[in-house]
Design goal:
By secondary structure, this protein is an alpha+beta fold. It contains 23 helices and 21 strands. It binds pyridoxal-5'-phosphate.
């Protein structure tokens, strides 16, 4: 990561102008830490210049501890290959050795010896030829290891070319376009031309060795074959690449070496696919790299690179170090390096042994297959292959019968030995199925990533590599810490998200309907206040122009053909604010603490909030040029302007789309506090109106208004957000409360809130909440109470309907503008490890699926071996 120098003064100046940041803290204090500790030790500590006087260690700890608490939860980070957990004893060993420098061999000879033993073990694991002298080194990760592997190939090629009197200034290297950035970095940093072999979707987005051949010539220093593509987990075919290069050599005399990028695969293949030939058994493989910090199961900061024989390392690359009377050699980019990761790697080798690594690889692959099968049989197409059986062939006849290391529970799973399936990493790469996309064309795959993030899971959605760039891929890396229980939960959440986006009653739905109207709106007059002469934002009791009071809003809200929401700018600011609070809420909840979201309604985002009209059904309500006249009074003078439905269905001064739109409305602070508008209430009311609007098939709005509708729905979803609660089974109920410094809103909300909370609690406890939630934000169903219902029952049913369920509309159009419901999370449902409510239909479906799937039956007989 490259970081730029930050000038604190400049930063403060910029923040004064920034629409979101300017309110975050007192201007003058932005360059300083804000500590919460009672002794306030950190309050004078600058952030971007070194403090003159240091902090007590406790305060420094507290500051950084708090700041790093904002990081994501590594357990739920399914985006990363990097390992996140080691046993207590390993942690102890790491702490004991964290002050040792691996390169100080004189001072720390033990670390050096352990390093050498690691190389020997890895050489053995990767089947290094007995006759050769395997040589290798620890690195910071696979990236450094790849640089060293590439450099060695370059030097060897140059040497050979020099010897033959040929040009040695134009080296190139060949690898698939699916390569991790480290490979391209090597090429750029070391002046080697990159020859990217485009990949194909049908190949699983990996390099086809046959395609690679055409990129090779006499200047090719080597081919890098990837054992475990970062995109899909597929293994590229090292053996085939080698065979084709043998044939090439026979035809042309070109002798092209292979480097295997086994960043992840070199710690999976030896244990899970022992018969797969990808390592030093293939004579053309001259070097292999791996990441100790991926499936080597060590914390970040460790990679390895090994050469099949020391002759592959040019003498110019190797530096001599003399210590304890003997000579040691180094080939690294860095001189100093921490010894602790190397020691931690040896801890794993000793503690797990071959069988331990094998068990973990099997378990990871089993869980990955479970996820793959669940996704493949529902709304997704799985692009990774590790769940597809190979019925015949050499690979399936591997050591699948060697199950002696498994006992008890593991043996029950023995029927799904990975060797029965296509080899690959425990990675699940998937995309929405064509059928799902056809039936739900409005759904964007990236929403799945965002919605899973709201549930705590980090599942990236990214573009496929060159050659298949039109495809987006969602990817889950299954690591040791992703247990079967968590996997089941993940399946429920992914399917639940896919289901919640289906149909028309979703917060994102229907935006495609307006596609015909989508066009760049840049030239069109923006609905700025300047477009309207009398618009004024002056504060004071004598407000003029288009300003909106609470009562006016209430009146407009009653009119079914308008939605009134905030402007895009205000919505974006509010989304930011609520998002930050939601993250904190989730964080605290997962730590087992309670948290009440705080929104300062006296803050400028709220007091300067601006609003816009969204005309609904304009073709019906404003036919044939009829429109709306808006009046404004300044002193004695009253002015007005007439607005009609323009060609793009927005309200404008004329029907042309270049006419100014209806201006934004401000809501200045009134002397009479009860007249002040709360933008949250506006948005929550608009949310109800827009949800209903989008249920109507023929409902259309122009792109700008569609954006406003989308943002309004997004903000409401965030306001209704419920945090993911961890397995800790937090029993305490967490209430969302909008705290503000004007209590007239609170006064109005209180009775309804109290009633709703009590009722919700009752409903949950009495189990009157079975059935599918059908998109309800409450997460459960409140059935229609029927004609003899009490007022309370009827109100509860109304609240349920307002929460976004897709039940039919109520028979009458009576008062639907109760105050917004706030989510209540009561975790008295022991059956859910997370305490989150879930759509019953999805979880039931998953359970059914699990029980009918090919997966091992937990009650099946234990296979005796
Ligand atoms: C195939 C591949 N090569 C290289 C790397 C870089 O590894 P590291 O992060 O250990 O430098 C990665 C990282 O994900 C990878 O997947």
């Amino acid at each position: 990561m490259l970081s730029r120098h930050i000038d604190a003064e400049e930063l403060i100046a910029q923040c004064r102008e920034h629409p979101h940041k300017k309110h975050a803290s007192h201007h003058g204090r932005r360059g300083y830490h804000q500590s919460w500790r009672r002794d306030e030790d950190a309050s004078e500590t600058p952030k971007y210049t070194m403090p003159k006087v240091g902090l007590p260690s406790k305060s420094a700890y507290q500051l950084l501890h708090d700041e790093t608490a904002l990081d994501g939860n590594p357990l739920l980070n399914l985006a990363s290959f990097v390992h996140t957990w080691m046993p207590e004893e390993a942690n102890k060993l790491i702490v004991e050795n964290m002050n040792k420098n691996l390169v100080d061999l004189d001072e720390y000879p033990a670390a050096g010896i352990i390093h050498n033993r690691c190389i020997s073990m890895l050489g053995d694991l990767w089947k290094a030829p007995k006759e050769g002298k395997v040589i290798g080194t620890a690195t910071a990760g696979s990236s450094e290891a790849i640089m060293l592997g590439g450099l060695a190939m370059k030097k060897r090629w140059q040497e050979a070319r020099k010897k033959d009197g040929k040009d040695y200034f134009h080296p190139n290297i060949v690898f698939g376009s699916n390569a991790q950035v480290a490979l391209e970095k090597f090429a750029r940093y070391f002046d080697v031309e990159t020859r990217l072999v485009p990949v194909k979707l049908e190949n699983g987005c990996v390099m086809d060795p046959n395609d690679a051949l055409q990129y090779i010539d006499e200047n090719t220093i080597g081919v890098i074959v990837i054992l475990g593509s970062t995109y899909t987990g597929h293994f590229e075919d090292v053996e085939l690449m080698s065979r084709l290069l043998d044939e090439l050599q026979a035809r042309t005399g070109l002798d092209i070496p292979i480097h295997v990028d086994g960043a992840s695969g070199a710690f999976i293949a030896p244990f899970a696919y022992p018969n797969l030939k990808w390592d030093f058994r293939v004579p053309r493989v001259v070097s292999i790299n791996t990441s100790g910090h991926k499936f080597g199961l060590v914390y970040p900061g460790l990679g390895w690179v090994l050469w099949r024989d020391e002759s592959y390392l040019h003498k110019d690359l190797v530096f001599e170090l003399h210590y304890l009377g003997s000579t040691e050699y180094t080939f690294t980019l860095n001189f100093s390096k921490p010894a602790a990761p190397v020691i931690a790697q040896m801890f794993n080798f000793l503690n797990l042994g071959f069988d331990g690594y094998k068990k973990i690889a099997y378990k990871d692959l089993r869980n990955a297959r479970m996820l793959s099968k669940a996704l493949d049989s529902t709304y997704f197409t799985v692009m990774s292959n590790i769940h597809r059986r190979i019925d015949t062939g050499e690979m399936s006849s591997s050591s699948s019968s060697d199950l002696s290391i498994f006992s008890g529970r593991e043996r029950r799973h023995s029927n799904d030995d990975p060797n029965q399936y296509i080899p690959g990493l425990p990675v699940v790469a998937f995309r929405l199925s064509d059928k799902y996309k056809k039936e739900n064309p409005h759904v964007k795959q990236e929403w799945i990533q965002s919605m899973l993030r709201a549930k705590g899971w980090i599942v990236p959605n990214y573009g496929a590599p060159q050659g298949a760039e039109d495809t987006e891929i969602l990817r889950v890396v299954v690591r040791e810490t992703l247990s079967e229980d968590l996997m089941e939960r993940l399946i429920i959440d992914i399917l639940g998200v896919a289901e919640s986006l289906m149909g028309t009653d979703t917060m994102f739905a229907e935006s495609h309907r307006a596609q015909g109207l989508h066009h760049p709106d840049h030239e069109h007059a923006r609905p700025e206040k300047d477009n309207f002469g009398n618009g004024s934002t002056e504060e004071g009791p004598e407000q003029v122009g288009f300003s909106l009071s609470r009562n006016l809003h209430y009146t407009f809200d009653k009119l079914g053909f308008y939605g009134l929401t905030c402007t895009k700018k205000t919505l974006l600011s509010l989304i930011d604010i609520v998002h930050v609070e939601n993250d904190r809420w989730t964080e605290r909840t997962n730590e087992g603490a309670g948290y009440v979201r705080h929104f300062d309604l006296g803050g400028p985002t709220f007091t300067n909030a601006e609003y816009e009209f969204v005309p609904l059904y304009p073709n019906h309500m404003f036919m044939n040029g009829t429109g709306m006249t808006a009046y404004s009074t300044t002193g004695d003078a009253t002015t007005f302007k007439h607005y009609v439905v323009a060609d793009d269905l927005a309200l404008r001064e004329g029907i042309s789309t270049s006419q100014p739109r209806f201006p934004v409305l401000s809501s200045p602070r009134r002397l009479q506090a009860s007249d002040n508008l709360n933008p949250f209430l506006v948005v929550l009311n608009a949310d109800m109106v827009f949800r209903r609007f989008r249920r109507v098939q023929a409902a259309v709005a122009c792109s700008e208004l569609n954006d406003l509708i989308d943002l309004t729905l997004q903000l409401a979803a965030k306001i209704y957000h419920q945090p993911l609660i961890d397995q800790a089974k937090i029993a305490a109920a967490t209430l969302m409360k909008i705290v503000h410094d004007e209590d007239e809103d609170a006064e109005m909300e209180e009775p309804a809130d109290k009633y709703r909370k009590e009722k919700t609690r009752k409903t949950r406890r009495t189990g009157n909440s079975t059935g599918a939630s059908m998109g309800s934000r409450l997460g459960y169903v409140v059935p229609d109470p029927g004609p003899n219902a009490s007022t309370e029952e009827w109100l509860e049913y109304k609240i349920y309907q307002m929460s976004g369920c897709d039940l039919p509309d109520p028979p009458s159009d009576e008062d639907e503008d109760e105050l917004p419901t706030e989510p209540l999370i009561l975790n008295d449902d022991d059956s859910s490890p997370f305490g989150v409510t879930e759509t019953v239909n999805t979880s039931e479906r998953v359970r059914n699926w699990l029980s009918n799937s090919e997966l091992p039956d937990p009650d099946a007989e234990v296979i005796d071996t």
